[in-house]
Design a protein that fits this description.
With 429 residues, the protein is mainly alpha-helical. The protein has helices at residues 13-54, 59-86, 89-109, 117-122, 126-139, 149-179, 182-203, 219-260, 264-287, 295-314, 318-345, 352-380, 385-408, 410-420. Helix 2 crosses helix 5 (126-139), helix 8 (219-260) runs parallel beside helix 12 and helix 10 packs antiparallel against helix 13. The longest helix has 42 residues, at 13-54.
């Protein structure tokens, strides 16, 4: 029996049964909270971005709105991960649910055309930023990512499918609710946010504070963890480029969609299809292991995503736009799932919430940079130019990752070569 199970040996099976049942049910609550959190957030995101686009605001203003939201999500993720690591993640978790409710109320009450609307909208990022780091840490608490890779991957894939399903449903529902008026969309989001708060209060009764879990590892498992830690940092660099482009779809695409002449409900369907491609990518990555610790797979995926951005920049119809979104969607799916896997596998148990916070923060940072730079460029040149800029950024960061791999990963392979007398090709290919 492993060390993490030894604590339960001091408790009789009868006494421990209620606690075990609570721990078994906890992931179900967490997955449901993921679905509802992103559903809520993206009903509001769709409503705000579509409202601003129909007001014919400048692209830089759309970019400012998206950048502020992403920046607040990044700050919330870093702060939430650090607080969950240093103190009690349960308090951080509930505060995230409360912050979500308050931000929706603020967006619904403040007029879209006033100066105060932007800060109210930006505050929407704080809630998920506080919710997700402790949630990710709880999902795999006590699990060794190297001895039980399939079990950890299963928890992560369910998490990714859950929040993406919520986002996809939120974008679909956002189009339908917005057709009846922005107030309907805000009201629906607020109602579900209150339900989510009750679920969060229920979930925190089933968790224990994140703490160190001593695990005896073999030499090979230690080496794998070192590789995971290096690839964790590489994935954070990839997040900056991939979500630089992904942010344009979320925050600036409404401007291009309105210019092309695509209706609001079709706009929602396009975004839902984009999410469907992302979810399909997660499922493939969960079932297969060919991508583990292989830089060239990540670079190919990023190159295809850059091509997708070029297609979006040239799109004149919904069909062409869908093709570009599909090519970009596989990149968004790959970057997010691989980054989450490496952040879990390359971190000790008590630091997983912190690593998850950094992972989410790099996603948010890429989105913030993409929306603000894309918004300014869209105003100065055209609605299409930001997507070409994002493709260039991805290509440049691919070079950065290659250089970083040479510094971080190659020395590990050389160390194993000296120890074993055999090359470790899996680190390269």
């Amino acid at each position: 029996m492993r060390d993490q199970d030894q604590a339960s040996e001091n408790v009789s099976p009868t006494q421990d049964l209620p606690a075990r049942r609570m721990r078994t049910r906890l992931p179900l609550f967490l997955y449901l909270i993921c679905v509802l959190t992103d559903f809520i957030a993206f009903v509001v995101v769709f409503t705000v971005s579509r409202s601003l686009a129909e007001e014919h605001v400048e692209p830089w203003y759309l970019g400012l709105a998206g950048a502020g939201l992403s920046f607040s999500a990044g700050v919330g993720s870093l702060l939430g991960g650090w607080l969950a690591y240093r103190f009690d993640g349960r308090v951080v978790f509930v505060c995230g649910a409360v912050a979500t409710v308050l931000s929706i109320v603020a967006c619904g009450l403040v007029d879209l055309r006033t100066l105060w609307f932007q800060p109210c909208y930006w505050s929407l990022g704080i809630g998920p930023g506080f919710l997700y780091p402790p949630l990710i840490g709880w999902l795999n608490q006590g699990e060794d990512a190297h001895a039980n890779r399939r079990g950890v991957s299963r928890r992560l894939i369910l998490f990714c499918v859950a929040w993406n399903a919520g986002m996809m449903c939120g974008q679909l529902a956002g189009g339908s609710l917005y057709a009846g008026g922005a107030r309907w969309a805000y009201g629906a989001a607020l109602s579900i946010a209150l339900v989510n708060l009750l679920l969060a209060l229920t979930a925190v009764r089933r968790v224990v504070p994140l703490a160190a879990v001593p695990i005896g590892r073999t030499r090979q498992e230690h080496e794998t963890m070192e590789r995971a830690a290096a690839f964790k940092r590489l994935s954070w660099i990839a997040n900056l480029g991939g979500w630089f482009g992904g942010s344009l779809v979320i925050h600036l695409l409404p401007g291009l969609v309105v210019t092309i002449g695509i209706a609001a409900d079709d706009h929602g369907k396009l975004l839902a299809c984009w999410r469907a491609v992302i979810i399909a990518t997660y499922l493939v990555m969960h079932r297969a292991a060919f991508w583990h610790y292989r830089l060239h797979t990540s670079l190919v995926v990023q190159g295809v995503g850059a091509c997708g951005l070029v297609v979006i920049a040239q799109a004149e119809s919904a069909v062409t736009l869908l093709i570009g979104l599909a090519l970009l969607g596989q990149l968004a799916g790959y970057n997010y799932f691989s980054g989450l896997f490496y952040s879990t596998a390359g971190s000790s148990h008590e630091r997983r919430a912190l690593a998850a916070g950094i992972h989410e923060a790099t996603v948010a940072a890429g989105m913030a940079l993409g929306t603000i730079a894309g918004g300014v460029l869209g105003s100065l040149v055209s609605h299409r130019m930001p997507y070409l800029l994002a493709a260039v950024v991805i290509l440049l960061l691919m070079v950065v990752q290659s250089v970083a791999w040479w510094s971080w990963v190659r020395p590990l392979s050389q160390g194993r070569l000296r120890a074993d007398g055999e090359p470790v090709l899996s680190l390269i290919f």
